[in-house]
Amino acid sequence: MDVVETCGKETTLSSGEPSNKRSIPSIDDDEVVGFENDAEIIMKKLTGTTKELDVLSIFGMPGLGKTTLARKVYNNPSIVNHFDVKVWCVVSQAYTRTMLLVEIFKQAINKECKIKENDNVADMLRKILIGKRYLIVLDDIWEVEAWEDLRLCFPRGENGCRVVVTTRIEQVAKHLLHRSDPYSLRFLTMEESWVLLQKKVFRGENCPSNLVEAGLQIAQHCKGLPLVVVLIAGIIAKMRREASL
Length: 245
Known about the structure:
Strand content: 5-15%
Mean pLDDT: 84
Order of helices and strands: EEHEHHEHHEHEHEHHH
CATH superfamily of the largest domain: P-loop containing nucleotide triphosphate hydrolases
Largest sheet: 5 strands, parallel
CATH topology of the largest domain: Rossmann fold
Low-confidence stretches: 1-27
Distance between the termini: 45 Å
Number of helices: 10
């Protein structure tokens, strides 16, 4: 059984309900090769002059780095200082509305608390957000219903509030169209893939000249997918460590 901690008495959820406690991934700067321009565009949309609530969708196939890009923006000092409330919530394919609301509420109040079983968390969340400039990231949404389950909890107001959604499904991104068009994440160029591969394998050291040709071929075979580059780089780095023993 999972126990949800919120304000008041504790609520016990059945073991069949997935917990939304996936930790936010730790991302180094070397994992965002090629995203500098993308991040700049998104940050301008988030801090722009539009006062009404805006929803920005980042979409693309798995492995393109949607979450990585969103995290880079989320952690940028200009974004951190711009918003009163910041929330990062992983939705994923299997979710429950209650767990999502509780997770968002806990981050919005920025403290541990307990909730009574009959509390209306959606209403509590809405009241907490009213009057504040908030940024809520909903990472990895798979279906429109997930957004419909949550959207009424986000007050519109005119405080420059923003919601960022990452999704691999273009139809979901288009459904969420608000004021900003969905942002389609591009593939890395071969050169960017090579830079990322070197950084992950050699950790700041230069690639030996006798390995450059093979490395370029590997980078090309990654087809511009950052996740594939990182995974292959991890395998190569492990092989190098074992060979040096």
